Amino acid sequence: MTVQRPAATRHRPTLGRRVLDAFARWPRRLSGPGLAGALVFFTISLGPALLPRAAFYQGAVAGICAAIGYGLGALLAWVVRRAGVPWSRRASRWFRRVLLAATLVAVPAALWWNRTWQDELRGLFGEPPAHSSHPFVVVTLALVLAVLLLQVGRGLRRVTRWVGGLVGRVLGRWVPVPVTRLVAVALVAWLTVVVLDGTVVRGGLAALNGVYSTLDSGTAPGVVQPDDRLRSGSPESSSAWDDLGLQGRTFVAGGRPAAHFEEVAARTGRTEPLQDPIRVYAGLSAGDSLDEVAQLVVAELDRTHAWDRSVLAVVTATGTGWVDPSMSDSLELLWGGDTAIASMQYSYLPSWISFVGDRSTPPAAGKALFEAVYERWSQLPEDDRPLLYAAGISLGSYGSQSAFSSVQDVVARTDGALWVGTPGFTPLWGELTADRDPGSPEITPVLDDGRTVRWANRPADGSDRQLWALGDDWERPRVVYDQHASDGVTWWSPRLVLNKPDRLSEPRGSDVLPSTRWVPIITFWQTTIDLFVAGSAPAGHGHNYHTEYADGWSAIAPPPGWTTQDTAVLREVVGLVESVA
Which keywords annotate this record (predicted)? Predict the structure, then answer.
C-alpha cells in the first residue's frame, strides 16, 4: 500500500521581499558599458557652467546627461558585439566590479568638484555658498530622472520591436530583415515626433495659454490705474485699463518718482524743464490681430501728442508683454521725461515657453508694431518729429530686430537701436556677429572698427570691453548690443551639441570661470538649464541688465551736451531701484 504524503508547502516571499528582490535584480539587467557611459556623462555634467544653479536644476541636467551616456554606452557595446569582439561572463563580472569601485570614487569627487566651482562662481557674483544639502538633492534627482528616461527609452525599443515584427510579417517575403527593422525605427521615430509635436507640445501650449491668459487678468500688488492722460489705461485713454494685461498695467502705472528726475537734472546741469513721460500700450485682447493691436498703439500716440516729444522709443516686449522697468526709466531720466515709449502685448505665455514653443509670434509682433509706428512717424515733417529708436530685451530684442532686414535698414529707418540680452537664434545678431572683424571675440565683437554697431559686456566690476574702448567718435545712428558672457539666453544654440563655440576658445568674459570647458552634448544641456536660471542672476551677470541701460541709452540717444560723467550719474540713480522681471 502506497502512502501519499502531502506536498511540501512552499514558502512564498512577502510583497516587500519580492519588491526588494526585483530591485536587486534590476541593476544586473542593465548594460555594463551603458552604466559606464552614464557615470562618465554624470560626472562631466557636474563641471563648470555659465551660472551657479539650484540643486533642482543641477540634478536635472545630470540626470539627462546620465541617460544619454547610458544610451551611447549601450550602443557602443552593441557595435562591438556585432563586430565579433569576444566578451566573456568573467570579463563582464570584472568590468562591473571595476565600475562599482570607480563609481564610489568618481561620484563623491564630482559632487565636490561641483560644489567647489559653484561656490567660486557664487563668490564672483557676490552670492552666498550653496546649501549643505545640495549634493544629496542632486544625486537623488539625477538618479530618478535618469531611470525614468531609461524606462521611456526601453518602452520605445519594445514598440520598435513590435512594429518590426509586424512589418516583417507583412513584407518579410519580399524585404530583408535589416530593412524591416530600419522601417520600424523610422516609423516609431516619426510617430514619436508627431505625438510630441501634435499632442504634447501643441496641447501643452494650448493648456498653458489658457492658464496664463487667466493670470493675465490680474494686477500686480501696488499697481493702480493712472489718472494721467499721458498714460494708456487712464480714463481718457482708448486703450482700456482692463484690456492692458498684467504686464501692461504694470508698465503704464510705473515710472520713477519726481525726486529722481530732479536729482539727475541737477547733477547733469539740465536747464530744460522736466516733463511727465508718455507711456502708451495695447493689450493682446484689444484687437483681433497683431496689426489691429499695433494700430491702437499708434492711436494712443496720436491722442497723447507723443509726436511732439524729443524722443520716441518703440520697445518690443517679452512674451507676456513685460517691459523692463530699468529700460524705460533710464531713457526717461536721461531726457528729463521728454520722451514717449510705445509697446504692446503679443502673447500670454512667459518668454521661456515662447522661446521653446513659439518663435513665430515675437518677430511678427515686433514687425507689426514698428511698421505701424514708422508709417505714422514718416508722415510728419522731417524737422518736426521725434528721434525714433527701437529697443527690446531678450525675446523682445529678437522680435524688435525682425522688423529690419539688415543693419543698413536699421540706420535708414531709425535714429538708433538698443538690443539687450539677444537670443542666439536671432538672424540679424547672428549675421553681424559672424561678420565681425578678425581677431575680435565672440562675446564682444568689433564690426567695421565699431563705426555703427558696438557690443557692450559689462559684468559687475564695471568694465566695458568695447562700447567706449573704440573711442567716442562713431557714426550716427548707432546700434548697441548689450550681452553678458554668462547669459545662457544669448549663448544657447543646438550647435552646442557637436560644435565648440568661439567664446570658449577665445579669452573669457570676466564672469566666466577659466575652468569652463566645452564637452559635446553635455555643454548643450548645461546651457539649456542656464536659460531657466539666467534671469535670477545678480545685476551685471546672466540675464540681469538692470543698471546697464544707462550706458546703452547714453551711447545711442544722448541729449545735447551729455558727458560720460553724466552717464555715471544716471547709472547711479537707476541703480537705486532693483529691476524685477
Answer: Membrane, Transmembrane, Transmembrane helix
Residue labelled with grid coordinates 568674459: 509
CA dihedral 130, 132, 135, 140 (to 10 degrees): -120
Q: Helices in 493-546 by DSSP H: which ranges?
A: 522-533
The DSSP line for 473-508 is ---SSEEEEE--TT-HHHH--GGGGT---GGGTSPP
282, 232 contact by CB (below 8 A): yes
Q: How far apart are the C-alpha atoms of 530 and 417, rounded to whole Å?
A: 27
Give the DSSP per-residue string, 261-300: HHHHHHHHT--SPP-PPEEEEE-GGG-SSHHHHHHHHHHH
d(CA 308, CA 311): 9
H-run or E-run covering 339: strand 339-344
Read off the pLDDT of residues 451-469 as tens digits, 9 standing for 90 and up.
999 999 876 555 555 566 7
The CA distance from 301 to 370, in Å, is 13
Question: Which amino acid appears at position 483 of this protein?
Answer: Q
Q: Which residues pair with 392 in a beta bridge?
A: 316, 419
Helix (H) or strand (E) holding 232: none
d(Cα 298, Cα 342) in Å, to the nearest integer?
8
Report the Cα 566 to chain-centroid distance in Å.
Answer: 33
Closest CA to 137 of 59, 79, 23: 59
Residue from 263, 303, 309 nearest 574 by CA: 263
pLDDT at 569 > cutoff 70 = yes
| C-alpha closest to that of 400 among 439, 474, 344 | 344
Cell of 246: 498684467
Range list of β-strands (E), 345-500? 387-393, 416-420, 453-456, 478-482
Q: Which of 394, 400, 402, 396 is nearest to 489 (CA)?
A: 394
- 149-160: average pLDDT: 78
pTM for the complete prediction? 0.85
Laid out side by side, the sheet with 278-282 consists of 278-282, 339-344, 311-316, 387-393, 416-420, 478-482, 453-456
Q: Could you give the count of Cα atoms lying within 13 Å of 162 in the half-sphere of its Cβ?
A: 7
- Per the CB < 8 A criterion, the answer to whether 178 and 170 are in contact is no
Whether omega before 477 lies within 30 degrees of 0, making that bond cis, reads: yes
pLDDT bucket at 178, cuts 50 / 70 / 90? low
